[in-house]
Specification:
Elements lengths: L1 E4 L16 H14 L3 E4 L12 H14 L4 E4 L8 H10 L6 E5 L5 H10 L3 E7 L4 H6 L9 E5 L8 H12 L7 E4 L5 H11 L3 E3 L16 H21 L2
Parallel strand pairs: 1-2, 1-8, 2-3, 3-4, 4-5, 5-6, 6-7
């Protein structure tokens, strides 16, 4: 599986190619799905372009994307969009249109409560386990671990020279991850090396303007669709190379 991460926390300062309105997100997501993405991760935005968990923004974003695509759609529940854990849980209960899944960053305060609220409403949980945090240990001890949809092994090391090693360290810390499927991805300079590692290990991965603005050769990407097309080329090539190794 290659998930497309449509926009992330980026804004207008990152260039006009980052989709911020529900219509722009839907158009970009539809193009990415046509290019081969089989799942969508998106950050709903406020009118001023900030990440938000408001019911109105979540509904508008999901409805627009679903009108253009037929694959699962997930949203963020990042603490930066709603810092107070209790308010974050309240936001989830206020949603009138539900995503197929939502990411929960396990190192953030209130992660267990947010995940429980999502599960209560029938929303799949992507457990975000960031490198450089205690999230792997906290997730290993979580009674909710066996109930999550999948684990997002999120490598925050942006250095292309060390990101793969950071990814392997994170996967080792995760261990069996409660037996849940793992989606491995990197960011910025580490995005492409970690994607290729995911291919070698037979893991799901993701790509999109949230994770990187550039192609493997350093050229600026022009769309999420272009990133997805290149990701599939890179993934298949790395997987074939891995199969040929003795």
């Amino acid at each position: 599986m290659v998930q497309v991460c449509v926009n992330g926390g980026r804004g207008s300062g990152d260039g006009a190619l980052v989709p911020l309105s529900p219509g722009a997100m839907a158009g970009s997501a539809a193009e990415a799905v046509a290019a081969g993405a089989s799942d969508i991760h998106v950050h709903p935005k406020s009118p001023c372009g900030q990440d938000t968990l408001s019911a109105k923004a979540v509904a508008a974003t999901l409805e627009e994307i679903r009108s253009r695509t037929g694959v699962p759609v997930g949203v963020t529940t990042g603490a930066w969009a709603e810092p107070d854990p209790a308010a974050r849980v309240a936001r989830v209960h206020e949603w009138t249109v539900l995503p197929d899944h939502a990411s929960v960053n396990w190192h953030e305060p209130g992660a267990e409560e947010v995940a429980a609220a999502l599960l209560e409403r029938g929303v799949g949980v992507e457990a975000g386990i960031w490198s450089g945090t205690d999230a792997a240990a906290r997730f290993a001890a979580s009674p909710l671990g066996p109930r999550v949809l999948r684990v997002l092994a999120e490598v925050t090391d942006p250095d292309p020279g060390s990101a793969e090693a950071s990814a392997r360290e994170l996967l080792a810390a995760l261990g069996t991850a409660h037996g849940r499927p793992v989606l491995l991805h990197g960011e910025e300079g580490g995005a492409w090396p970690v994607l290729r590692l995911a291919a070698c290990l037979g893991l799901a991965t993701r790509i999109g303007l949230e994770d990187t603005l550039v192609l493997p050769d350093g050229q600026r990407a022009v769309s999420n669709a272009q990133l997805v097309r290149e990701a599939l080329v890179q993934y298949r090539s790395a997987a074939r190379s891995s199969d040929r190794r003795p």
